[in-house]
Amino acid sequence: MISFEHVTKRYGERLALDDVSWRMEEGDCVSILGHSAAGKTTVLRLITHEVSPTSGTVTVGTFRGGRVSRAHRALLRRTLGIIYEDFRLLSDRTVFENVALAVRIAGHFADSEVIPRVLHALTEVGLHQHQTAFPHELSFGEKQRCAIARAIVNRPAVILADEPTGALEPKSAGEILELLLRIHREGAALLVGTTRPEVAEAIGGRRFVLAEGRL
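RE: above sequence
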């Protein structure tokens, strides 16, 4: 499903990834553990094709190679549910609209399709009562839940989570991890990048350690 073959990534003179090779199969659960700036976010950005490798090959499903057209990149991202560390919620949209946008980008525009999908996702993450709120009215944990709802609303094949517990206190962090694991048990592959050993331990599955750009 996802494979890196001798992938190196440089940003100017800075080496982010150094000859990294690994595979992730359909339905896998994987964590990548490493300190801040170890290269975890670069791995996720290579999977989504936000950036291209300096050398080597990244394959995601049927998408293989470095540069991918905008249309193909959009198709690729429909198969991925992405939970960014900074959430990337639109400040001028309600919780409902932030999640609904992902449904519309996937090509579904009728209210009869959008509304049930969004309400189901918000109920799953416990935000049904906050659907009319704006991001600035949410707590940190509620923003995280909104980002997860947006990632799962289209039932993607793969969930990518960049530091999903962030600065959450232990109880909220545990709830977020249990939510991600429940989605995984329903069939989605799960890839989590984290600085926290306890998160990698809770996620289970296969664990990779990233240090100095090497996996």
